[in-house]
Amino acid sequence: MPLIVMCGYPCSGKTRRAEELKVYFEQNTERKVHIVGDGALGFEKNTVYADSQKEKNVRAALKAEVERKVNKDDIVILDSLNYIKGYRYELFCLIKHAQTPHCLVYCLTSDEQSSSWNTSRDAAEQYTQDIFDALVLRYEAPDSRNRWDSPLFTILKDDTLSFEAISDVLFKRKAPPPNQSTQSQPLSSTNFLYELDKITQDVLMAIFNALKTSVPGDLISVPGATEKIELTRSINMAELRKLRRQFISYTKMHPTENTGQISNMFVQYLNKSLH
Hints:
The protein is of the alpha/beta class. The protein contains twelve helices and seven strands.
């Protein structure tokens, strides 16, 4: 049955909202409700989110658990950051393949509010400030114009969840029909999207960290690339994000079978664009 994907900054209230949804559906339906989330995996968040490979493994474990739980009777709530749009697209392909409805619940907060909630937690439950800032920086907000981010319910910190509206889209709306891409090649297409998104984001984060101590004329090493960024002038993250979006748009139209070349391709594109 339906999948509810929670989404939001770290410490934006996702777990509280997931519990509210669980209580509502248990009281108003006869269905079982499963919450699949970071807490159940028992990992140390600062260790995981500081290591891209560990983070990738955790996302894969969460997705696999969702896939195991989704069935014709139960409701599954995925309570995690779910901040990468390529990952949300993978989840969308999963529910299309399972022929079940889904929706996103976006806990919208400012980074200042989430940071305040983070520091008010017990020390063992807090994100370090560096990890928190990095996650906010690379957060990709859902957009209801994307079919994988729709239906989208945006909830502010003082709002009441639209329980009936969420229930309607889950139980009264038809599941998205499977199509050729989800039936015959779900892994190749979604893995490429995921790798493209993750690799280019890792490159940007490496540049961002290096810019703190670099000056024009320096060469910046980035993960997965043999070539280096030639820092010929001052640049900012807004410009880098724009170039990343342009590169992703181009690469989607001209995909490569060798994802190991994405880093070098992106570095070449940046060097050409930044001169």
